[in-house]
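Moderator note: this is an archived Q&A kept for reference. The question asked for a predicted structure of one protein chain; the sequence and the answer are reproduced below.
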Amino acid sequence: MPTGKIFVVDDEEDILDLIRMNLEKEGYKVTCFENAENCIKGAINNPPDLIVLDLMLPGIDGLDACRILKDDTKTRHIPIIMLSAKGEESDVVTGLELGAEDYIVKPFSTKILATRIKTALRKSMGFGKLALPENNVIKRQNLTIDPGRREVKIDGKLIDLTFTEFEVLRLLVSRSGWVYTRNQIVNAVRGSGYPVTERAVDVQIVGLRKKLGKYSMMIETVHGVGYRFKD
């Protein structure tokens, strides 16, 4: 039976009770919150193994809460599954770009939610995931990547990258000259079995190149294979 500590955030009491009851049956220890502020405080003081986070919340909404959690070194490692009635593609993309592990649209099946949680927890423990490099600072000429601070600097100037852009750059630069397939990139950043197309990887590379300025040409396309960062 699965074990683990899970935070659930939703402003609807009925949904909280439903999720709590079903996850406790699965063997999880569940703590519920009706707002994101209390969840964030709880996660900083006593980090859970996973957070189920509703998007539409009073006060700090789910997207802002995700951003805060992923920006904090104490909580950025916690997998987040977003739960919301908003199912538009733009909402899904925004949530995932902020670092959410998965996104489930209401109304939902509690069995599917439990399965997604189990999968996310397995990924967070490293099962089926290509390991990213250690949290050592990486330097290539005047490009610096600091995984601990989640900062990228060019000539000492901070570059604003999304969660996914940062992880893709970190992966490519960590082994300059090594060619990564699109599937390997997804596996390293999100874990195996993540529902994303090869086109989505290409979109991330386009966005990354725009932000890298003079270093954009260092990311080479290896046609028919994937991408690499030039030595």
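Archived answer notes: The chain has a mean pLDDT of 84.
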